[in-house]
Amino acid sequence: MSFHAIVPAGGAGSRLWPLSRKNAPKFLADLTGAGRSLLQQTVDRLEELTPQISVVTGAAHARAVAAQVPQASVIVEPSARGTMGAIGLAAAIIAERDPEAVVGSFAADHLIRDDEAFRDAVRAAVETAGHGYLVTIGIAPEAPSTAYGYIETGGRLGVARAVTAFVEKPDEQTAAEYLATGRYLWNAGMFVAKASILMDVLERFHPEIAGPLRSLAAAWDGDGRQEAVEAYWEPLAPAVIDTAVAEPLAAIGGVAVVPADMGWSDIGDYASLAAVIPEEARAAQVVPGASPQPVVEVDSPGALVYANRKPIVAVGIPGVVVVDTDDVLLVTTREESQRVKAAVDALGTAGLADLA
Q1: What is the three-state SS of the chain?
Q2: Distance between CA atoms of 247 and 263, rounded to whole angstroms?
Q3: What CA–CA distance (Å, rounded) separates 235 from 229?
Q4: Strand partners, 258
Q5: β-strand partners of 298
Q6: In terms of CB atoms within 10 Å, which of 125, 127, 189, 254 comes out highest?
Q7: 4, 47, 186 from 50: Cα distances, Å
Q8: 195 with 98: CB under 8 angstroms?
Q9: What is the pLDDT along the chain (356 residues), one digit of tens a residue?
């Protein structure tokens, strides 16, 4: 079996605004000072598993993606149709070219600190997918987090475990109860399966999505792609892969999970971003493309500061977050950082939609 990696690269990452914006989303940025963008780090770790990597992104970001990862092929999503549309399109194209291929989907904007543990988990997932399962990679929980969905596990399936159910983000008490059982893993949204089986499962639960994707994939490499896009993609309903196929398939025993401890983070807000930056470096970050500037922190433990063109001084604000870009200044705290998205949503009302 050949293994093809699919990297969906979309979304605006609004909770990390203004470092992440519609025209320059977080997957294109180096948020941690690693010298590589999140997309580049994702492709770097996948290259040791397969040379066959496809990045699915919108037309607005296709050129930037191609420049950052020239070793990957770029599938330009005609318009946003959710993760099922993006992953399904790539899987259908790959299945058309290689009916025996195994595909794996890995987000472009997640951070993984133990690359070898990640690769071991993917190898185990590919092995399990060879037995006909849709396989996900579950993250060993570090704490009773309310920020992630959970995977309830069942019995052993070789190197993997059966998935009993996918569970939405719980409240704090429920999350603590999950951890106490030892049966739950964080859902990182990674999926591995034979491309043909993924499309068959999609056909079973959502034929109105699978049929058009297969028809579009059949025309993708020919002269009729644009006509096929208009005929099959434009009417396609948006869908999320978790609810479209993973959840209903788990209910009938068709999903497996490989548990992994690999230092994973979805970097979903400034609190989770701060957690992956060493403490001594948090108040010394630089806005991508800017020059280092002095940052003075007085009685502000846990401060996360991205300087730009001038020194920044923070006094007496524990967990303060400061991001100074050319056109806007954000000041919040790690505790309130989930609410940054609400501020972005309010920009249009304030006549500042161009800053989003």
Answers
A1: CCEEEEEEECCCCHHHCCCCECCECHHHCCCCCCCCCHHHHHHHHHHCCCCCEEEEEEHHHHHHHHHHCCCCEEEEECCCCHHHHHHHHHHHHHHHHCCCCEEEECCCCCEECCHHHHHHHHHHHHHHHCCCCEEEEEECCCCCCCCCCEEEEEEEECCEEEEEEEECCCCHHHHHHHHHHCCEEEEEEEEEEEHHHHHHHHHHHCHHHHHHHHHHHHHHCCCCHHHHHHHHHCCCCCCCHHHHHHHHHHCCCCEEEEEECCCEECCCCHHHHHHCCCHHHHHHEECCCCCCCCEEEECCCCCEEEECCCCEEEECCCCEEEEECCCCEEEEECCCHHHHHHHHHHCCCCCCHHHC
A2: 25
A3: 9
A4: 137
A5: 315
A6: 125
A7: 7, 5, 25
A8: yes
A9: 799 999 999 988 999 999 999 999 999 999 998 999 999 999 999 999 999 999 999 999 999 999 999 999 999 999 999 999 999 999 999 999 999 999 999 999 999 999 999 999 999 999 999 999 999 999 999 899 998 999 999 999 999 999 999 999 999 999 999 999 999 999 999 999 999 999 999 999 999 999 999 999 999 999 999 999 999 999 999 999 999 999 999 999 999 999 999 999 999 999 999 999 999 999 989 998 889 999 999 999 999 999 999 999 999 999 999 999 999 999 999 999 999 999 999 999 999 999 99
What sign has the CA pseudo-torsion 131, 136, 142, 145?
negative
In one-letter notation, the amino acid at residue 8 is P
Residues 56/63, Cβ–Cβ less than 8 Å: no
Q: Which amino acid is at 198?
A: L
> Strands 255-260, 285-286: parallel, antiparallel or unpaired by DSSP?
unpaired
- Residue corresponding to tokens 């989930």: 338
- Look up tokens 């990045």; give the residue: 55
Q: Do residues 238 and 117 lie in contact, with contact meaning Cβ atoms separated by under 8 Å?
A: no
Q: End-to-end CA distance of the chain, in Å? A: 43
